[in-house]
Amino acid sequence: MDKLPLWAKILIAVVTCLAIGFLSGLSTTDAIGNWYAGLNKPFFNPPNWLFAPAWSLLYTLMGISAALVWHQGLSRPEVKNALLFFGIQLVLNFFWSIIFFGLEQPMFALIEIILLWGFILVTILKFHKIHKVAAYLLIPYLAWVTFATALNAAIVYLN
């Protein structure tokens, strides 16, 4: 699989990230109109329609980023290690929506998103040693998760 051209790796990685985001988002559908609608939210809470396009863009950037690192060669231990951290943060990303929306547990989601934020930061640092552009592509994701963490914390505080 290391012999795949970069475009194929990008396609695989982007589709994987988008699919994980889509599956994670299934837990939000019912909660948005019901449970989430009834929560007290801070003044900086964005409109609900913004989340799907924002996450779609972020998952696309994440996939491109992972593919750029993957393309440097899975035989390299630092590439394997960096992609392991990428995978861990992707799993944490998947579970945040389930914890927050599906299980309706903002406090546990806050703990989880703080852990996610840390894994994203470590992933960026590991990617930077391998492919600088790959690391830079994850900066909007870290910024959005920083915002989401503040939003999550505010919801915990207000409710």
Description:
It is a single chain. The protein is an all-alpha fold and 159 residues long. It has a single domain (6-41, 49-158), classed as Ferritin. The protein is 77% helix and 0% strand. It has seven helices and no strands. It has helices at residues 6-25, 29-33, 51-70, 77-102, 106-130, 132-137, 139-158. Helix 1 packs antiparallel against helix 3 (51-70) and helix 4 packs antiparallel against helix 5. The longest helix is centred in the middle third of the chain and has 26 residues, at 77-102. The protein is elongated and about 50 Å long. The mean pLDDT is 95.
Task: Annotate the secondary structure layout.
Blueprint: H1 6-25, H2 29-33, H3 51-70, H4 77-102, H5 106-130, H6 132-137, H7 139-158
Helix pairs in contact: 1-3, 1-4, 4-5, 5-7
Order of helices and strands: HHHHHHH
Q: How much helix, percentage-wise, in residues?
A: over 70%
Number of domains: 1
Biggest sheet character: none
Number of helices: 7
CATH topology: Ferritin
Second-tier CATH architecture: Up-down Bundle
Morphology: elongated
Cα-to-Cα separation, first versus last residue? 48 Å
Strand content: under 5%
Mind telling me the CATH class? Answer: Mainly Alpha
Structural class: mainly alpha
Mean pLDDT across the residues is 95
**Radius of gyration of CA atoms, rounded to a whole number:** 16 Å
Runs in which pLDDT lies below 50 for 5 or more consecutive residues are none
Number of strands: 0
**CATH homologous superfamily caption:** TspO/MBR protein
